[in-house]
Amino acid sequence: MNSIENKALIPPRLRDDVQFFSGETSGHLGKTLVVAGQRYFLVDAMTSQLLQSMRIEWGDYRELSQHLVKEYDLICDIESLQLQISAFPSSLFSKQEPRNPFILSWRFLSGPAVQVLARPLAMLFSWPLFFITLAVFLSSTLILFWCLPQLTHLNWAEAAWGQAFALSLIGTLIHELGHCAAIARFGARQNGIGVGLYWIFPTFYAEVHDAWRLPRWQRVAVDGGGIYVQAIFVSVLIFLFLLEPNPTIVLAIWLSFTMMLNTLNPVMKFDGYWLLSDALQVHNLHSQMKRIATQWLDVFLGRRSYRGMSVSLSIGLVIFLLLAFVFLSNMFVFYGKTLGIQIAISEMLFSSHASNFWPLIGHLFVVLVLLVLGLINACKLAASLSSFRSL
Ligand SMILES: [Zn+2]
Questions:
Q1: Alpha helix locations (H) across 186-310?
Q2: 311 CA distance to ligand 1 centroid (A)?
Q3: 31: CA distance to ligand 1 center in Å?
Q4: Is the dihedral of CA 302, 307, 310, 312 positive or negative?
Q5: Taking each helix axis from N to C terminus, what angle separates 216-243 and 161-185, rounded to the nearest 10 degrees?
Q6: What is the helix (H) or strand (E) element at residue 116, kind and residue range?
Q7: How far is CA 311 from CA 250, 296, 307, 334, 387, in A?
């Protein structure tokens, strides 16, 4: 018998740091939440008993099977037990963390460091402050849209793209702090903030997997915490712009809006997807949205009555479509307008006789970044839509 076969005859031992929580607090009645490092699994009572038994090392599957009968009255033949255990994810047994979607990543702020920064922001997560912030954000956005057409002297071509991009990146860092502040407010654990290279773009991320342990509406607050705090940052930018109209700040505001809509777009699995899926308490948001949309189509075609249809899923569908529509409209206008401006400036610089080499390179680089960004968004959108088709 070689060592590989021998290994298969010994049940693996659960890694030491695996924790078990009742699923009731997170709204999953009768389930147990199993936490293995950064991985979270919802399991039924029987699986939970089996996993808890695997905390110690057993000589063979027969021993484990005898223990299950004695301890939990679970009768299971050895072959089924082997089959069941072989189907468990390997992260329950080895300390391999899930791969993140970045080519390169660096966690530059540890959990305790983020805690210091996030603690003052945690007080923002109260209902009175939420409504005040929302009112300030919505009114300042309306004032901005009302003022913009009157500022005809504002020349987009004069906007400093690098500065605008840097400002909006600060906004995304604050966004990640918002997720951490929300999780700190509800007493769950965050594991710091990092930066990763996603395709060719630097992107910040926050490690807030522990939100899985929180009840439904606290999870929603963690999902939306990033956008919420970013909205405060954008309100400050709007205030600065209103004090002194400047094309760089208005560009930073637009970039921030685009990033916020991008992450709120529920067609892709970003914040908006998890926000809706936690609020509606559905595990597979896309299939649920497809199901309720088909039901409504049948109602409009007179094939069925609307009686018995889920109200919360119907409201969810309206929000889903609205967010997707706003995201797509902004994306077309944003890419169309900024690409047009950048190509026009590049053409002008190219045809003029003055020495414009570096500014020309800069604008051509922005054109390239926009094209790649547009291509990535189109690919991700197409991949998300194909997941709808295969449901
Ligand atoms: Zn986020």
A1: 216-243, 247-264, 271-280, 285-300
A2: 27
A3: 27
A4: positive
A5: 150
A6: helix 111-122
A7: 39, 11, 10, 34, 25
* Integer Cα distance of 309 and 296 in angstroms: 9
Distance CA 232, CA 384 (A): 30
Query: Which parts of the chain are beta strand (E)?
Result: 19-22, 32-36, 39-43, 104-109, 193-198, 201-206
The answer to whether residues 157 and 345 touch, using CB atoms and an 8 Å cutoff, is yes
Positive or negative, the Cα torsion across 58, 63, 68, 74?
Answer: positive
Measured from the Cβ of residue 219, the count of other Cβ atoms closer than 10 Å reads 26
- Residue 232: both structure tokens together: 């405060």
d(CA 259, ligand 1 centre) in Å: 10
253 or 384: which leads in pLDDT: 253
pTM, 2 dp: 0.72
Q: What's residue 201's pLDDT?
A: 63
Half-sphere CA count of 103, side-chain side, radius 13 A? 6
**134 sits in which H/E element:** helix 127-147
Residue 388 pLDDT class (50, 70, 90 cuts) = low
d(CA 280, CA 263): 18
CA distance 32 to 23: 5
Q: Are the C-beta atoms of 343 and 367 separated by less than 8 Å?
A: yes
For residue 306, report the distance from its CA to the centre of ligand 1, in Å: 35
Residue 216 alpha carbon to ligand 1 centre in Å: 17
Question: For residue 179, how far is its CA from the centre of ligand 1 (angstroms)?
Answer: 7
Residue 22 phi, psi dihedral angles, 5° rounding: -70, 135
How far is 117 from 113, CA to CA, in rounded Å?
7
- pLDDT band (50, 70, 90) for residue 256: very high
